[in-house]
Design a protein that fits this description.
38% of the residues lie in helices and 25% in strands. With 499 residues, it is of the alpha+beta class. Among the domains are: 72 residues, no CATH class; 104 residues, Immunoglobulin-like (Sandwich), CATH 2.60.40; 155 residues, Heat Shock Protein 90 (2-Layer Sandwich). It has a five-stranded mixed β-sheet with strand order 9-15-14-11-12, with no helix packed on it. The longest helix has 98 residues. The C terminus is likely disordered.
Length: 499
């Protein structure tokens, strides 16, 4: 075979073994200028790259002429080359070869020069070397004649080098050289012994110190425990006394709250009767044909104010009733569409006074049945519609919608008011809560209405919430469980009382 490195020879048996997979490497011999060729460069631009003559001679073209090879005259060299170590250099000093070689600590650079004296293709001799104690295996040095090591740690070393001739015959015995590098004091066994002794002594002293410290700390902890035990006993006695005082204060507060509720109920009931009378008299005067227009305006104002005060008193009484869990529901089968229609028509005069429109979008009668307390549920819807009118601008629209959704009946009251802020959402349906929006017609707001609505809806097993963002109006939603056929109770879908 020829290439730009010369001519190479391999055994056919090795090629067959490689092709069958029984060996992983193929041994070969190389021939070049050291063997009589004028040039090693055998690459040509055309084929064939060689020619076999009738007498068995092989002809190979090179860039400087033709090279002829007679395979019959080429015998493999079975003699392994001798190996010698020429010199050993540590730093800039060449060490003597005889006797023991001991180098100072941390010799930075070590160079070992070796050779294989032979007259048969000396340039084709291949070397391998290994520094036992440092190298994990043999290093393929090729035809290089030196090995260099830097910054070797302290220890004992044996350098070995072997060589092979051009035909791959190895001198496995080779040559060897032993040397050692002295450690620094802190790398010696004496130093490690001293360090181990110091560490043991330090550990013993620390142990004794911690033992004395632990005894002192134990005595200190005992004193602290005794002190804290006394403090805990005193705190317990004070806590028990404070608990007794708190129980007494709570009892006094509950008693005061009961008295307050009783006084509130008495005052509300005392106010309710004259307000009903004032409202009744105002109704009579409003329909008096002989009254002057100015008198009718005054009477209308009295009627409206008395109605507002009566509404507030009723809310106060409902609040007191709900607070003591005394509200009883009188359930019957009612139609939420009819109930919403009644509320919408009853609130229409209040809306028209502010040039507002009430838009009803109701489920067909008979499809929105619930088992509920008609009066209480009407109060809840009436409160939401009244609030929508109260907080909406003039000329806007209030939408009242009733829908049957699977197992619930949903009532929505939507307005075009200023909407709810994040703080409003946090305090919705709380007692005495005042929202950021203000009535647009000078109406009053007690802060009871939404709280009462939630209590009534909760008693019915329903849900109430608000959907709103600031500046885009609000929608208050009530959901009540829908009536099922097996649900006990009277069937009176059209029952709407006027009391």
């Amino acid at each position: 075979m020829s290439c730009n490195k010369g001519i190479f020879r391999s055994y056919k048996s090795d090629l067959i073994a490689f092709m069958s997979g029984s060996v992983s490497r193929i041994g070969c011999s190389s021939y070049g200028t050291t063997d009589g060729m004028v040039s090693n460069e055998c690459n040509g631009r055309r084929q064939p790259s060689g020619w076999k003559a009738s007498d068995g001679t092989l002809w190979f073209p090179t860039i400087k002429g033709v090279a002829a090879v007679d395979p019959s005259s080429m015998r493999p060299n079975e003699m392994p080359p001798p190996v010698v170590i020429e010199y050993f250099m540590a730093g800039d000093d060449i060490q003597r070869r005889s006797g023991e070689i001991r180098l100072p600590p941390r010799s930075r650079r070590i160079e070992i020069r070796y050779a294989a004296p032979t007259f048969l293709a000396p340039a084709a001799v291949q070397f391998r070397y290994r520094l036992e104690g440092f190298d994990p295996g043999w290093f393929e040095a090729g035809n290089r004649h030196s090995a260099v090591y830097t910054n070797l740690p302290a220890g004992e070393y044996l350098f070995r080098v072997i060589a092979a001739n051009r035909d791959g015959v190895w001198n496995m015995e080779g040559a060897s050289l032993a040397f050692s590098i002295r450690p620094y004091f802190y790398e010696s066994a004496v130093f490690y012994g001293i360090v181990a002794g110091v560490l043991l002594l330090t550990a013993f002293l620390i142990f004794r110190y911690r033992e004395r410290r632990s005894s002192a700390r134990e005595a200190e902890l005992v004193a602290i425990v005794d002190e804290r035990t006394r403090t805990l006993i005193e705190e317990k006695e004070r806590s028990e006394q404070a608990s007794v005082d708190a129980t007494r204060q709570r009892e006094l507060a509950e008693e005061a709250n009961k008295v307050k509720s009783q006084l509130l109920n008495v005052a509300a009931h005392d106010l309710k009767r004259p307000l009903i009378s004032i409202k009744g008299f105002a109704d009579i005067l409003q329909h008096d044909a002989e009254a002057s227009p100015s008198s009718k305006d005054i009477v209308a104002m009295i009627h409206q104010l008395s109605a507002n005060m009566l509404h507030s008193v009723n809310r106060l009484l409902d609040s007191a009733t709900l607070e003591r869990d005394a509200l009883v529901l009188y359930r019957q089968l009612i139609d939420m569409s009819r109930l919403a229609e009644f509320v919408g028509e009853s609130q229409r005069p209040q809306a028209e006074a502010k040039q507002q429109t009430i838009d009803l979008n109701l489920e067909p009668f008979g499809r929105a049945l619930v088992n509920a307390d008609e009066a209480r549920l009407r109060d809840a819807i009436d409160n939401l519609v009244s609030n929508a009118i109260k907080f909406s601008p003039r000329g806007s629209t209030v939408r009242l919608t009733v829908q049957r959704r699977f197992d619930v009946v949903r009532c929505e009251v939507s307005d075009q008011g200023p909407g709810l802020t994040e703080d409003d959402h946090k305090q919705l349906f709380q007692r005495f809560s005042r929202l950021t929006a203000r009535p647009t017609g000078g109406e009053t707001s007690t802060g009871f209405g939404l709280w009462i609505v939630k209590q009534i809806v909760d008693l019915h097993g329903g849900r109430v919430w608000a959907e709103s963002s600031q500046g885009s109006g609000s929608t208050f939603v009530i959901e009540i469980p829908a009536y099922e056929e097996h649900f006990p109770g009277p069937r009176n879908p059209g029952a709407i009382s006027s009391d």
